[in-house]
Amino acid sequence: MSLPPIRRIVTGHDARGRAVVASDGPLQTVVEIQAIPDTVFHEVWSTSGSPACVDNGPDPTAGPLMLPPPKQGTRCRFVDIPPDTQEFLAHGASKMHAAFSETGDADVSTVQDDSPHPLMHRTESIDYGVVIDGEMTLILDEGQVTLAPGSVVIQRGTNHAWANRSNQVCRMLFVLVDGVYDSAIATALNTTSEEDPR
Questions:
Q1: Taking a C-beta distance cutoff of 8 angstroms, is the pair 42, 79 a contact?
Q2: Biggest alpha carbon distance in the chain?
Q3: Coil, strand or helix: which one is 86?
Q4: What are the two backbone dihedrals, phi and then psi, of residue 3, each rounded to the nearest 5 degrees?
Q5: Are residues 80 and 175 in contact, defined by beta-carbon separation less than 8 angstroms?
Q6: Contact between residue 135 and residue 164 where contact means Cβ atoms under 8 Å apart
Q7: Radius of gyration (Cα) for the chain, nearest Å?
Q8: Rounded to 5 degrees, what are φ and ψ at 194?
Q9: DSSP per residue over 114-179, as a string?
């Protein structure tokens, strides 16, 4: 079952400073990840810099798909995630470099032979992930949590994967905020990567 398209309403200001609708319609950038069929990224908006420039500028989602947010910026997207298949679970790890390359950042993949899921990855950001439709399982190095519509995950730069163990597509809304690891966490991650490079 495919989910309905996203309608995006963008506001702005006219020459007198009055609030107006700048655009109302479908998203400009909707990308299916070829290495993981039926996984679809719906790019909503992004900002670069903080504080964000409040302007009447062009659509920032135009151009190539990029997984992480811009430096000191944010990224908002919906992602449709299909059910995991036995084929994907058995052989998906070999496709992860290609899959994350399609999202503009192959280096975020952390998958190893003993990883709990082929989609294990990490970004240096704070991510808000909200289940909109369907069911999802958050997988971490230690533990997992089943999520239903209305569940929100605050992802603080941790190694993780999203596993769809249901029989229908799950749609999630993500807002990613660029971040920098706390020095203690950065030290622990560097120590871990030296012991067990991912």
A1: yes
A2: 60
A3: helix
A4: -90, 160
A5: no
A6: yes
A7: 18
A8: -70, -35
A9: T-SSTT-B--SEEEEEEEEES-EEEEESS-EEEE-TT-EEEEES--EEEE--SSS-EEEEEEEEE-
Six-digit token string for 156: 């603080």
CB atoms within 10 A of CB 51: 7
- The pLDDT tens digits for 155-176 are 999 999 999 999 999 999 999 9
Q: How many residues in the chain?
A: 198
pLDDT at 99: 86
pTM of the predicted structure, to 2 decimals = 0.92
Distances in whole angstroms, Cα of residue 90 to Cα of each of 99, 174, 193:
16, 27, 25
* Residue whose pair of structure tokens reads 């990883």 in the numeric block: 115
Q: Are 56 and 22 in contact (CB under 8 A)?
A: yes
Domain extents in the chain: 29-195
How many angstroms separate the CA atoms of 74 and 63, rounded?
16
Q: Classify domain 29-195 by CATH number.
A: 2.60.120.10
* Residue 16, phi-psi category: left (phi > 0), alpha (psi -120 to 50), beta (remainder): alpha
Residue with tokens 């996203």: 6
Q: Give the confidence band of 195 by pLDDT, cuts at 50, 70, 90.
A: low
Q: Six-digit token pair at 78?
A: 């919906």
